[in-house]
Design a protein that fits this description.
The protein has 222 residues and is mainly alpha-helical. Helix content is 82%, strand content 0%. The longest helix has 34 residues. The termini are far apart.
Amino acid sequence: MSAAAPVSAAARTKAAAPVSDVARATVLHLRTVAPYRTQGLLVFCLLIAVLARNPDHVVPALAVLLAPLIAVQPFVVADKAGLETLYAVLPVPRRTVVLGNYAWAVASYLATAAAGAGVAVVLARVEGLPFAGHDLATALALSWALFALTVAVQFPLLIRFGYARISILGTSLPLALVMVAVVRLHLSLDTLTTWQAALWAGAPLTLAASAALAVRICGRQS
């Protein structure tokens, strides 16, 4: 019994190590993009100003137009600063850096959506519009699904080709898919009421499939 305890503890430590490494990679991405936070804040304020009279559109718009830009910023900086060389000598597998990209993306969405939701509720109250509770939950579900689709398309392309080679396609293709889905399916907060559960569940599955593909791509490149 006494011999089994250290083995079990060692196994738990070994299992936790990859999660810890992904967390470190995520923090590395945060520090990489931190100098560019002013630009992100300016875009946030601009979108809020444009959508001030349509608070129900704020969170989905931020999820499509701002959060993905923040999410891909580590790829932009890596291309400009040649950070791939640094990643190559880090004492962690390349897939850990890639998974850190996805963790950073989710963190970017959560921060953007939280800030956008708060502003949207305030704007709705100022305008005297009914936007809270169920409407807010639906807007968050829609924004989460749109963001997940955007990142799921972008990241494997960025990992395979690099930001410099795929920047325009990597940005325009996901946005085009989102716009086609919105128009063709006539999506709105009212029509999405019955789809909330599917949106909440489908988004992480989409990101997981994209991450698996991205890890496979980086494995082939190494």
